[in-house]
């Protein structure tokens, strides 16, 4: 018997076979050396982060305690036909610390019309009530403490 005339010729050449898993892994960077390198980089990054975190905690913890200053407005009084304002406030500062405070006077538009820096001597008391008169350039309607700091 002879082969039919219409039959397709047989392809005896090797076909393009799919690459093996090893070739694909190498092509896309999934080899053992890449995994080891990635793991080393990840561990190195984690160690660097831990070092920075520990250094920051030590730096912040050893910064030391600075004396805490608290200041609270307690009142104001208009004087001399609104040409001066008497401001009263409480100052809380650890005993033995000299401080300075800024006192402001405002007009009805909340514009600063008077300003005065007060030097407060050291005291053996933690909490003190202070009063200061601020002269103004224009008619004032209120006075406030701006802030205090150690000197």
Strand content: 35-45%
| General shape | elongated
Task: Report the helical percentage.
Answer: 10-25%
Average the pLDDT over all residues and give the rounded result: 86
How are the strands of the biggest sheet laid out side by side?
Answer: 1-2-5
Count of discrete alpha- or pi-helical segments spanning 4 or more residues: 2
Pfam family, one: DUF4307
Biased composition (Low complexity): 1-20
InterPro entries: DUF4307 (IPR025443)
Keywords: Membrane, Transmembrane, Transmembrane helix
Please supply descriptive tags for the structure shown above:
single chain; 151 residues; Immunoglobulin-like; 2 domains; three-stranded antiparallel β-sheet; 2 helices; elongated
Furnish the topology, listing elements before pairings.
Elements: H1 21-27, H2 32-61, E1 70-79, E2 84-92, E3 99-106, E4 112-120, E5 127-135, E6 142-150
Antiparallel strand pairs: 1-2, 2-5, 3-4, 3-6
Protein name: DUF4307 domain-containing protein
InterPro entries: DUF4307
Pfam families: DUF4307 (PF14155)
Description:
The protein is of the alpha+beta class and about 150 residues long. It folds into 2 domains: about 20-60; about 70-150, Immunoglobulin-like, CATH 2.60.40. Helix content is about 25%, strand content about 35%. The chain contains 2 helices and 6 strands; from the N terminus they run H-H-E-E-E-E-E-E. The chain has helices spanning about 20-25, 30-60, and strands at about 70-80, 85-90, 100-105, 110-120, 125-135, 140-150. Strands 1-2-5 form a 3-stranded antiparallel beta sheet, with no helix packed on it. It has a 3-stranded antiparallel beta sheet with strand order 4-3-6, with no helix packed on it. The radius of gyration is 40 Å and the shape is elongated. The model has no long low-confidence stretch (mean pLDDT about 85). This is DUF4307 domain-containing protein.
């Amino acid at each position: 018997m002879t082969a039919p005339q219409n039959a397709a010729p047989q392809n005896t050449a090797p076909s393009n076979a799919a690459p093996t898993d090893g070739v694909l892994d190498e092509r896309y960077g999934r080899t053992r050396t890449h995994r080891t390198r990635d793991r080393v980089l990840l561990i190195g990054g984690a160690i660097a982060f831990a070092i920075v975190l520990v250094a920051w905690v030590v730096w912040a913890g050893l910064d030391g305690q600075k004396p805490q200053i608290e200041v609270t407005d307690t009142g104001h009084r208009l004087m001399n036909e609104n040409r001066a304002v008497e401001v009263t406030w409480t100052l809380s500062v650890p005993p033995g610390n000299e401080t300075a405070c800024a006192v402001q006077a405002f007009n009805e538009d909340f514009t600063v019309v008077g300003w005065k820096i007060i030097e407060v001597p050291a005291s053996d008391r933690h909490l003190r009530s202070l009063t200061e008169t601020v002269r103004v350039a224009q008619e004032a309607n209120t006075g406030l403490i701006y802030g205090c700091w150690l000197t």
